[in-house]
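Design review, sub-item: ligand-bound model
Attendees: FS, YL, KQ
YL presented the inputs for the T3D complex:
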Amino acid sequence: MTEVLTIARENGVATLALARPDKLNALTAELHAALRDALAQCADDESVRVVVLTGAGRAFSAGQDLTEDLPRDEAGRIDLGPPLARDYNPLIRTLIDYPKVTIAALNGPAVGASMNIALACDIVVAARSAYLQEAFAKIALIPDAGGTWLLPRIVGPKRAMALMLTAEPVPADEAKALGLVHAVWDDAAFAGEARAFAERLAAGPALAYRLTKQALAKSFDNDVDAQLVLEAALQREAGFSEDFAEGIAAFREKRAPRYTGR
Ligand code: T3D
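KQ shared the predicted structure:
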């Protein structure tokens, strides 16, 4: 059987590549299951510090596979409740809560649910020819996979509304200007630049990154006082770490730090 997801581990980076290139890496139940397993494995694998999600071939992913058999209700209508409850919603929760740095490396278009999966990663980087598209309205659906929560928090409610109602593609450079994408590289350089970027993060202080993610996850719910209390608690934890001691030592000795994530 052909693998629908490939996993490569190198220099602290696990690269998970959606691998149905003939179908622009459209998401099936099988691909969701493989992704779920891979994310769980990488969370437990101490040698992995950064997870990169990307696509094989010319697309990141074209969203839900529209040719897959979908469940039906008693009246015979397509019932999207089960795949959302089983696959999409847990995936978005997993990505938002993920204990390691996640990078969506958009080698090509990220469409429908796959745009929102990318946005649920910590950092999005893109090849110049890539685009992001909340394509749902084109097939008379509403944006799911966390899109209605994620997108307005990134670009503001008006832009989110327009992007969702028009279902227009957002080219990579425009997505960068909107804050959806952190870096855009030319297509020919993309794979190498994305790998180097991920490896730089993998050499960073993994424990401090995890705690930073925990702090940011609360920042839109907490008031300033609650956030200051949370920062103090998490900063104490960071301060107790071997990495902090190493960071201080490296600074004093004028050398690069060697972080272990402890
Ligand atoms: O299950 C649930 O819970 C529902 C959840 C839904 C979440 C969603 O993601 S809804 C959004 C679903 N996705 C789409 O609506 C996008 C559909 N695809 C497209 O509009 C276009 O393919 C693209 C704009 C993404 C790219 O266009 P283009 O011209 O570059 O490529 P293409 O020729 O259309 O596609 C290449 C092949 O991929 C083609 O197969 P073929 O004809 O060569 O055998 C095409 O059918 C296939 N493909 C592309 N997208 C999908 C797909 N096959 C299945 N599902 C797809 N989503």
